[in-house]
């Protein structure tokens, strides 16, 4: 096998969070007397850290204000939003097949770890993963991967798999290879610009490419 560990992003890679994200974003915005945003305005930002998205959508980068918005978002997300995720149809079977093939599997997401765990538990995916990484406060995905490397949780032969440029960038900043998936929110142009080692159209393509000896 070429890679020791496969690291998956969560939103837009294993599950589609759009419904919950849209509803929680607008819950947060309207709680502070801001107008709700159209679905398409919110969906195009899915992927980066929550605070970054809220600063853009509220047109306000004051840390205290953004933190208050994030708290409102997470209030609804913890109760309702995480259950408004949809698992991509081939995700579970592909994870099982990759695990059976001998890969170590992990998650590295911009979601706080408790929220990520709720989603993975909802879809009965936790058993497939050797580790689940979420940020501590404002930790970036690049810093999360760095911490995984420094702790020995992963090594330099790990592959980061995600649907946004931020996933590719985080991998490359840590001298890891990356793979982009086209069923999420990044799109071909965004992902190709980061020069990933792979660009997958489907879970079946991902499995077959990564299990070639």
- The tally of domains stands at 2
Poorly predicted runs are none
CATH class wording of the largest domain: Alpha Beta
Arithmetic mean of pLDDT:
95
Give the % helix: 40-55%
Order of helices and strands: EEHHHHEHEHEHEHEHEH
Task: Write the topology of this structure.
Elements: E1 5-8, E2 15-16, H1 18-31, H2 39-43, H3 50-58, H4 63-79, E3 86-87, H5 91-101, E4 104-108, H6 113-122, E5 131-133, H7 141-150, E6 158-162, H8 165-173, E7 177-181, H9 188-192, E8 198-200, H10 203-210
Parallel strand pairs: 1-4, 1-6, 4-5, 6-7, 7-8
Antiparallel strand pairs: 2-3
Helix pairs in contact: 1-4, 3-4, 7-8
Any overview of this molecule?
With 213 residues, the protein is α/β, with parallel strands linked by helices. The chain is 46% helix and 14% strand. The protein folds into two domains: 5-16 and 85-210, 3-Layer(aba) Sandwich (Rossmann fold); 18-84, Putative phosphatase, domain 2 (DNA polymerase, domain 1). The protein has helices spanning 18-31, 39-43, 50-58, 63-79, 91-101, 113-122, 141-150, 165-173, 188-192, 203-210, and strands at 5-8, 15-16, 86-87, 104-108, 131-133, 158-162, 177-181, 198-200. The strands form two sheets. It has a six-stranded parallel beta sheet, with helices on both faces. It has a two-stranded antiparallel sheet with strand order 2-3. The longest helix is centred in the middle third of the chain and has 17 residues, at 63-79. It is globular and about 55 Å long.
